[in-house]
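Reviewer 2 asked us to include a model.

Predict the structure of this chain.
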Amino acid sequence: MKPRLSVLGIFLFGLALSACAGRPPYGDAKLWLEEIDPGKGRIFVYRNRNPLTMFFPFTFVFDGKEVADFHSGTGFYRDVKTGKHTITFNRGKQKMDISVPEQGQMFIRYNMVSDASDPTNMAVSVIPPKEGDREMERTILIEGTLPPDRGVRIYF
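Predicted model (structure tokens):
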């Protein structure tokens, strides 16, 4: 039984490594991000690394539309039209209005919160740019889309 277990372990480890292959951390990627177009602002959406929540994907809902799934230790960015927008979270139970500045950057952090009745509850916060930039330094940048299978992903 031990050989099967070690082969399974190697397979799962390889699968986990393949999930993050070619994806740079924000700290490296921010040096080559393209400029923000006039009339738009950039929002960074991220989750800090937490091994206890790595199997719970969050879905980013922007202006009523599901935009991206992301996991513990990952983040993405999106350039959006400046002005007021709405972020919906906790399965539509809560909303937060944001105002995106022209050619500015916003950092939006998702955190898991403890709730025995719903393990996917989260807190969403707008973080000051300097703090968000520092917190995202080692966060893996992902595409920020809805994957076709919407399954669990592990990023290191």
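Helices lie at 2-20, 26-29, 129-135. The beta strands are 40-47, 58-62, 65-70, 74-81, 83-89, 94-100, 105-112, 122-127, 140-141. We have added this to the supplementary material.
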